[in-house]
Amino acid sequence: MSASVLFDTPGPKARARNRIYAVLGTVAIVALLAVSVIRLSDKGHLDPAMWDIFNYAGIRQNIADALLATLKAFGLAAVGSLVLGVLLAVARLSDHAPIRIVATGFIEVFRSIPLLITIYAVWVGFLVDYSMWALAIGLSIYNGCVQAEVLRAGVNSVPKGQREAAYALGMTKTQVMTTVLMPQAVRAMLPTIISQLVVTLKDTSLGFVILYPELLYSARLIASNTQVNGQYPYVSTIVVFGVIYIALCVVLSALATWIEKRGRRAKTGIVVPDAAAKQVVLGADAGQAFGNTAGGADGTDGPGITKN
User: Which residues 6+ apart lie within 8 Å of 122 measured at CB?
Assistant: First the structure.
């Protein structure tokens, strides 16, 4: 029986016990799902008429408009959070104490305040008539603070020798940050950055509080204003809009995976020839140098040597 670094390989009794637990757990989950489906069916939530409402042109148009509104708010919040995150990360890494203190205070304050309160405060205080901008700014502030900490961790993970080498070459602080540290930080922390963008996408659902017509607001409107056989289609609406949210997050995660793989395949740096190529080049250079020395174009075999 072998053992790994993290855990001991289970023996025959442990494997049998794990199989029993897996079977019992699977049976319990299947039983719970069966009970849920039976109860929903008894209450009429699985009636085909409950799902047929999504074939109406008005409801489809409402969903399409809500999806577009969600993507608009997410696009603005994503760009705003990344830009603010870079600025706050650079400010927090500054050598000037006042700038560093202000950036640190800003990050700690808005990371501690619930996002819903930030969005509502921006909407009530400044942008009552512009709910989309209120939602985008609120999301940008909160997620920008989180992205700043992610980028700061990425910059600090870069070996100090690279920074010292850049300064030794005469590069300024701005050049070192923009050309040496930040690109490596972004590449190292790209999975975390994309994960936070997924959180930003899901947090657009808080826009219903400020009456922004995004997906959750549209789902609430459809479920509470459409009656089918005397009942409101809450279950079918939740399932449909939940699938839409899942699809958006899966697409964003797949995009992040593609970008990460493409970054790994990118060929960067200076191409160094192998040892065999070096020997061939050096041999050719040596032969050419010897030929230039031993034999000239004037009929001599070298310095002081004349052909007969």
Answer: 134, 137, 138, 141
